[in-house]
Amino acid sequence: MRAAFAALPVPFREVMVLRELEGLSYKEITAIAGIPIGTVMSRLARARRQLQGHLAGHGREGA
Amino acid sequence: MTMSCADREQQIGAYLDGELDLTDALEIERHFELCPSCARRLAAQQALHEAISDAAPALRFRPSPRQSRRLRAALRDAPDDRDVPDARDGRRMAAPPAGGRSFRHAGPAAAVRHFRAAAAANGSSGVGRAAFPGGLFRQVAWIREQWRALPQMKGLQAAALLAVAVAAFTLGRSWPARPAASLVSEEVVSSHVRSLLAGHTQEVASSDRHTVKPWFSGKLDYAPTVIDLAAAGFPLRGGRLDYVAHKPVAALVYQSDHHVINLFTWPSSYTGAPAAAGPAANSWQGFHLLHWSQDGMTYYAVSDLAANRLRQFADLFAQQLARSDPT
User: Fold this and answer.
1) Whole-prediction pTM value?
2) Of residues B14, B60, B147, nearest to A14 (C-beta)
3) Which one, of B280, B276, B300, lies nearest residue B187 by Cα?
4) pLDDT at res. B198
5) Cβ contact (<8 Å) for B17 and A26?
6) Does ipTM top 0.85?
């Protein structure tokens, strides 16, 4: 999982960390990352897709 | 449908994050029932969320005890920054939250401001390179990449600040994963909404508790206590079976003016006894929830009533329950 996070491009990792690890709302993320809410949603969606792809490709190691 | 399934991926994420408004949430819930491929994507996203939650302790930055000591010392030595100009634009800073280390209520932006101001006062000598060993910086680099809120800071200084900020969060908060109680709350609200949508609030419609209570016998392996609160403006409408926390449970239906109150009740052993004995308030997508535990039973009251009115209802119910004999 750590490797999967590390493989995310920075803008995607940023929103994932704020959402999943810090439990912030989309509104709080827009304030911190300085991006519109639509961008928060699309980055989260793409980050999640990439994480799923990464984890599927690497079995369950490190998760 | 106005939206293709390919466009729903963002919505599925927002749904799981509790960020959809009620209309969209209901719409997508209906869609999940019709569309196996979206239901699969929902399950996959849920699984990912759980995997991240499981791995969260390993993903978070944790300072060593030695680093923690240094960070605490740096915080203790930081001057009161009430009058320190903001490093970014020279404006006066608002007063930082009291205590310096707890940003639980003020939020991360306040923490960032606080530490930014502390750095402006200290320069690089206080919380700069001298305060930290090189190993920390390698760890911090990873975190810093994720956090671009401080573009104005010079590299090392920003990294040191972020280390302090992140460590302060780590020390000051326990980072609770979403507790089981909140999942139950979500389920209860969903059940409430579904009952209203389908116009199916009660299977046994009666304002007589001696009709409603026996209706449950044979359907559940416990007997819910039914109390009539009509005199207080909460007439009993009836009851129905519902399904919460993987168990069939009793839902009692009350009314207040035009608002429906669903009162779910089950033995506390189903979901574990709540930590607090008194009613805990919560709200979810505009609905208010109160839940409490009494005589080994857990109660969840949910409604779109005003929060104080719902509390009145819950208090009355709890009082009468305490007085009632188990008939």
Assistant:
1) 0.41
2) B147
3) B300
4) 74
5) yes
6) yes
